[in-house]
Write a structure and sequence with these properties.
heterodimer, A: 629 residues, mainly alpha, 19 helices, 66% helix, B: 317 residues, alpha+beta, three-stranded mixed beta sheet
Chain lengths: 629, 317
C-alpha cells in the first residue's frame, strides 16, 4: 500500500531514531519504550522478592508457636515486604506501564524529558539495590514500612536498619519526583493534535492524578525521613518526647504521605481498568467526563483522610469526626467509577479474555476492600480492629485487589503490543483462577482473624485463641496464589518467543497505541495521528487518513528527533518539539548519587560532601551538551 | 462476605480475645455496629458480584465489532453517587451517635488504674490502693474502671477486645479508657502496636471477679512478701534484685515486673507461658530461649540454688 514517498519517509525516521544495539546503547538509551520495559522487568523482580518474603512469613504463621523464623528475621521480612510492595513494585510497575504507554496513547514519540526519564529509572534501580543491600549486611529495616518513632530512634533500633530506610527512601524519592514531573509535562504538552483535555485516555488521567499526588505527598515523607535521620545521627529532637519532640509528628507526616500513597498506587490501576473495560465491552466507556473527574477528585480528597490511621492515638473526637467524614466522602468517586464500569459492561457486548477476567476479578475484590474501608470511618469499630489482621485483610483487598489485579490485567492486555506476540490464552485463564482463588483464600480468613483479636505484625501466636485454622487457610491460599503468579511468568517467558503473532491490534482496541505496529517502531508513529474523539482507534477513517498524511509527508517531522508540542487544554499544535537523544549523563549522575547515599549511610561526611560536588559536576555535564550539537 | 458471616456465627467459646464476644457496654455497642456494617456490606458486595456475573454470562460480542454511543451514565451516577451519598450520610449520623460508647473517660472514677507499657510487659499500678503488679489486672465485675495508659519506652497499645476498643500508649501522653466487665471471667488482652522483637508475646489478662473476691485479692496484694530464707538470699545475690522489686525485702529494681505476689498470677513473661514450677525454672535458666530478645539475662543458676530460688518465688502468693 505504501508508496515510495511514504517508504522513504519511514526510512528517514528509522535512521534518525535508530539506536545501534549494544552495551553503549543499553547504558545511554532514552527511548521511553526501553525504559518502560526496564521499569516493568525490574519492579517485577522486586515483586518476586516481596512474594518470597510473604511466603516465608505465611510459613511461619501456618501454625501456632512455629519455629521456622525468629522474631528478628520476621520483623525484617514484614518491613521489607511492605517497603518493597509499595515503593519498589507497585508504583514503579505502574510507572513502567506509564512510561511505555503514555507517549503511545497520546500520539507522541517520547516523554517530555527523555533523559530525565532515563535518570529516573537508574535512580530507581540504584535505590532498590541500596535498600536490598541492607538484607545482605544484616541491617534490613525492621520497624515496619510505617517506621513509627520512638521505636525507630537510635535508643531502640541501634543498627543501620533505619538509616537504610531513611536514606533509601530519600534516594528513591528523587526518582519518583522526577518521573512524576515528567508525566505531568508529557501529558499536558505532548498530545497529538486534536487530543483536547476531554479526549485523554483514562489511563493517562490515572497517571496524571498519580503524578500530582506524588509531587504533593512525597515532601511530607522526605521531611519525616530527614528529621529522623538528623535525630539519629546528630541528636536533633523532632520526635523524642523528653526533649520536647513528639512521636505523633512522625505519624502525621508519614500518613500525610501514606494515605495519598494509597491513591498513588490505586489511580493508575483504575486507569488500566478503564482502558480494558470498554475494549472487551465493545463500546466506549460510560460517562467518560465523570470517570476522569472521579479520578482527579479521589486524588484530591485523598489528601484529607490521613488521620483515620490514627484513631487509636487519643486525638480529640471533633478531629476524628472530620476525618471520618472525609473518609466517607471519598467513597463516592470510587462508586461512580465502579458503576461506570458495570454500566459499560452491562450495556455493551462483552467478550471474555484473560485481561478482562483479571478486571472482573478486580471489581469483586476491590468492592470487598471498599466496604471494609468504609468500616474504618466508623470510629469505634476502627478503634476496635485497627492494628489487627482485619486491617491486613482490608488493605490487601484494596492494594493487591486494587492494584496487582489491574497490573496482571495490564500484563495480559499489553503483552502483544510490547512483544508482538500473544500470550497463551488457556494458560492465562488457568493461572487467573489460581490467582483469584489463592488471593481470596489468603486474605479473606484474615478478616476473621482480626475479628478474633489477632494483632498484626506478630511473628507467633498461642494456640487456643481460635486463630489456628484461619492461619493455616491463609498459608494454603498464599501458596495457591504463588502458583497463579508462576503460571503467568511461565506464560510470559514462553510466549515472548513462541506466542502467536499478534498484529497491530489483536483486541480491536480504542486507543492510539494500537494504531501502530507491535512492537512499535522507535519513532512510534510515522505521521503523528490527528484525533477527533476519546476513542481515536475506533475512528477508522481518521486512521486511514494518518496513512494518507504519511504519503503527503505531513506531520512526519522527519528532520530530527522531533515530536509535536501542543496546547495543554485543546491539544492544538504549538511547536515542533525537539527531543534529546541518547546520553550517558543520566546514568553517570545516578551512579554519583548512589555513591553519595552510600557515604551518607556509612557516615563519611567529608567524602559525602565531595560526592555532592561530583554530583553537581555530573549535573553540569548533563547540561553542557545539548542534542544535535 | 457470606462466608465471613458464617465464620462469625461459628465463633465458639474458646476465643478469649475475640471482638465478637462482647462483655461490656462499649463492646456491645461496637459489636452492634459491626453487624450493621456487615449486613450493609454484604448487600453491596452481593449486588456488584451479581452484576459482574451477569457480564460473565452475557458473553456475546466479537472483537471485530464495536458499537459507539449508548447510554448508562444515569445508572452509573445514581447507583455510584446518589444512593451511596444517602447511605453514607445515614452511616455518619450513626457513627456520631455512638462515639460516646468508646470515648475516653474524663475525671477519676471509683477505681483508677495506671497501666504502663514496657518492652515487653505491662506494669499495673492501682492509683487508689498501694498495689503494684504486672501482666494481670484484677477488677470487680460490673464496675467501670478507669485505666490510664502510659508507656516507659516505645509506643504500645492497650487492648482487651472483649471489654473495650484499644488505646495507644504514647510517650508524653496520658490516654485513658474505661474497663468494665459484665460477667466474671478471664479476658485476654494483647499489645496492638508494633513495639519491637517481642511484640507478639506482650499479652496480659484482665480478671473480673465478684466484689468480695476482688477485695480479698486487693488486701493480699497490699501485703509485703513473707520472708523466704535461702531462696531470698539467692534472689539478692544472683542479681535478680537489680531488676525486680519484692516488697518487704531489699529488692527494689524497676526494670522488670514487681514479683511481690508473682506466684498468684496465672502466667509468666506477659502471658507467654503458664505459671507453674517447671516453666518458671525453665524461664530463669534460659529466658532468651523462652522469649528471645527480652531484657532478662541468663544468670547461670543451676541445681540447688535454682531450686531454692524457685521455691521462694513459688511461695510469693
Amino acid at each position: 500500500m505504501a508508496t515510495t514517498v511514504g517508504r522513504e519517509e519511514v526510512e528517514r525516521l528509522e535512521e534518525t531514531w535508530h539506536e545501534a544495539p549494544g552495551l553503549k546503547t543499553f547504558l545511554t538509551t532514552v527511548d521511553h519504550k526501553k525504559i518502560g520495559t526496564r521499569y516493568l522487568v525490574t519492579s517485577f523482580a522486586f515483586f518476586l522478592a516481596a512474594g518470597v518474603e510473604a511466603l516465608a512469613m505465611r510459613t511461619q504463621l501456618a501454625r501456632p508457636e512455629a519455629g521456622a523464623i525468629g522474631p528478628d528475621l520476621y520483623n525484617k521480612l514484614f518491613s521489607m515486604h511492605g517497603i518493597t510492595m509499595i515503593f519498589l513494585f507497585v508504583t514503579p510497575m505502574l510507572n513502567g506501564f506509564g512510561n511505555y504507554l503514555v507517549p503511545l496513547q497520546i500520539g507522541s514519540r517520547d516523554m517530555a524529558f527523555p533523559r530525565l526519564n532515563a535518570f529516573s529509572y537508574w535512580v530507581f534501580l540504584g535505590s532498590g539495590l541500596f535498600l536490598y543491600s541492607s538484607l545482605l549486611v544484616g541491617y534490613a529495616p525492621n520497624d515496619g514500612w510505617f517506621n513509627y518513632t520512638p521505636l525507630s530512634e537510635k535508643a531502640y533500633t541501634e543498627g543501620l536498619n533505619i538509616d537504610y530506610y531513611n536514606l533509601g527512601l530519600l534516594f528513591l524519592t528523587i526518582s519518583s519526583t522526577a518521573g512524576a514531573i515528567n508525566f505531568i509535562v508529557t501529558i499536558f504538552k505532548l498530545r497529538a493534535p486534536g487530543m483536547s483535555l476531554n479526549r485523554i485516555p483514562l489511563f493517562c488521567w490515572g497517571i496524571l492524578a498519580q503524578s500530582f499526588s506524588l509531587v504533593l505527598a512525597l515532601p511530607a515523607l522526605s521531611a519525616a525521613n530527614i528529621f529522623l535521620e538528623l535525630e539519629r545521627r546528630f541528636g536533633f529532637h523532632f520526635f523524642d518526647r523528653p526533649r520536647g519532640g513528639d512521636p505523633l509528628l512522625w505519624q502525621h507526616l508519614f500518613w500525610i504521605f501514606g494515605h495519598p500513597d494509597v491513591y498513588i498506587i490505586f489511580l493508575p490501576a483504575v486507569g488500566i481498568v478503564s482502558a480494558i473495560v470498554p475494549v472487551f465491552s465493545r463500546r466506549p466507556i460510560v460517562g467518560y467526563p465523570w470517570m476522569a473527574l472521579a479520578t482527579m477528585t479521589t486524588a484530591f480528597i485523598g489528601f484529607g483522610v490521613w488521620v483515620h490511621h490514627m484513631f487509636a492515638t487519643g486525638l480529640p473526637q471533633i478531629t476524628m469526626t472530620f476525618y471520618a467524614a472525609a473518609s466517607l466522602i471519598i467513597v463516592i468517586p470510587s462508586g461512580v467509577q465502579i458503576f461506570g464500569w458495570l454500566a459499560t459492561m452491562l450495556t455493551g457486548r462483552p467478550v471474555i479474555r484473560s485481561p478482562f477476567l483479571y478486571v472482573l476479578g478486580f471489581i469483586v475484590v476491590f468492592v470487598v476492600g471498599g466496604v471494609t474501608g468504609v468500616m474504618f470511618a466508623a470510629i469505634p469499630f476502627d478503634q476496635q480492629v485497627t492494628d489487627t489482621f482485619f486491617v491486613v485483610a482490608h488493605f490487601h483487598y484494596v492494594l493487591f485487589g486494587g492494584a496487582v489485579f489491574p497490573i496482571f490485567a495490564a500484563i495480559h492486555f499489553w503483552f502483544p503490543k510490547v512483544t508482538g506476540r500473544m500470550l497463551d490464552e488457556r494458560l492465562a485463564q488457568v493461572s487467573f483462577w489460581f490467582f483469584f482463588v489463592g488471593f481470596n483464600l489468603t486474605f479473606f480468613p484474615m478478616h476473621v482473624l482480626g475479628l478474633y483479636g489477632m494483632p498484626r505484625r506478630v511473628y507467633t501466636y498461642q494456640p487456643g485463641l481460635g486463630w489456628d485454622f484461619y492461619n493455616l487457610l491463609a498459608t494454603i491460599g498464599a501458596f495457591t496464589l504463588a502458583l497463579g503468579i508462576l503460571g503467568t511468568i511461565v506464560n510470559v517467558v514462553r510466549s515472548r518467543t513462541r506466542g502467536e503473532i499478534a498484529g497491530d491490534d489483536p483486541w480491536g482496541a480504542n486507543t492510539l497505541e494500537w494504531s501502530t505496529s507491535s512492537p512499535p517502531p522507535d519513532f512510534n508513529f510515522a505521521s503523528i495521528p490527528v484525533v477527533r474523539s476519546a476513542d481515536p482507534n475506533w475512528d477508522f477513517e481518521d486512521r486511514v487518513e494518518d496513512g494518507l498524511r504519511l504519503e503527503r509527508r505531513e506531520l512526519t517531522l522527519s528532520e530530527g528527533h522531533e515530536t509535536i508540542g501542543s496546547s495543554w487544554l485543546d491539544g492544538d499544535i504549538e511547536e515542533v518539539h525537539e527531543s534529546p537523544s541518547e546520553s550517558p549523563w543520566p546514568l553517570v549522575l545516578a551512579a554519583c548519587l548512589a555513591v553519595l547515599f552510600a557515604l551518607l549511610l556509612t557516615g563519611h561526611w567529608v567524602m559525602a560532601a565531595i560526592a555532592c560536588g561530583v554530583c553537581l559536576l555530573a549535573w553540569a555535564g548533563w547540561h553542557l551538551k545539548e542534542p544535535g550539537e | 462476605m457470606g462466608l465471613l458471616a458464617g465464620a462469625v456465627v461459628l465463633a465458639g467459646c474458646g476465643e478469649e480475645q475475640s471482638t465478637l464476644l462482647p462483655e461490656s457496654d462499649a463492646t456491645h455497642s461496637i459489636d452492634a455496629m459491626w453487624w450493621v456494617l456487615l449486613i450493609g456490606s454484604t448487600i453491596v458486595v452481593a449486588v456488584v458480584t451479581l452484576l459482574v456475573l451477569a457480564t460473565l454470562l452475557r458473553r456475546r460480542g466479537s472483537l471485530d465489532e464495536v458499537e459507539r454511543g449508548g447510554g448508562g451514565t444515569t445508572f452509573a451516577l445514581v447507583s455510584g453517587a446518589a444512593i451511596p451519598a444517602v447511605v453514607l450520610v445515614a452511616l455518619f449520623a450513626y457513627v456520631l451517635s455512638s462515639l460516646d460508647a468508646t470515648a475516653q473517660p474524663k475525671g477519676r472514677r471509683d477505681l483508677n488504674i495506671e497501666v504502663i507499657g514496657k518492652q515487653w510487659w505491662w506494669e499495673v499500678r492501682y492509683l487508689d490502693h498501694d498495689i503494684v503488679t504486672a501482666n494481670e489486672i484484677h477488677i470487680p465485675v460490673g464496675v467501670p474502671v478507669r485505666v490510664v495508659a502510659g508507656t516507659a519506652d516505645v509506643i504500645h497499645s492497650f487492648w482487651v477486645p472483649r471489654l473495650n476498643r484499644k488505646i495507644d500508649m504514647i510517650p508524653g501522653r496520658r490516654n485513658a479508657i474505661l474497663l468494665q466487665a459484665d460477667r466474671k471471667g478471664a479476658y485476654r488482652g494483647q499489645c496492638a502496636e508494633f513495639c519491637g522483637l517481642q511484640h507478639a508475646n506482650m499479652a496480659f489478662y484482665v480478671i473480673a471477679e465478684p466484689a468480695q473476691r476482688w477485695q480479698r485479692w486487693a488486701a493480699r496484694e497490699r501485703r509485703p512478701a513473707a520472708a523466704g530464707g535461702r531462696g531470698e538470699r539467692v534472689f539478692a545475690s544472683a542479681g535478680c534484685s537489680g531488676c525486680h522489686t519484692i516488697q518487704g525485702t531489699a529488692a527494689d529494681g524497676r526494670v522488670g515486673p514487681d514479683l511481690t505476689h508473682v506466684a498468684s498470677r496465672r502466667t509468666l513473661a506477659a502471658a507467654t507461658i503458664a505459671n507453674d514450677r517447671r516453666r518458671l525454672a525453665e524461664f530463669i535458666r534460659d529466658p532468651q530461649h523462652v522469649k528471645p530478645g527480652n531484657k532478662m539475662p541468663a544468670l547461670g543458676l543451676q541445681g540447688r540454688r535454682l531450686d531454692a530460688l524457685v521455691d521462694y518465688l513459688e511461695s510469693l502468693r
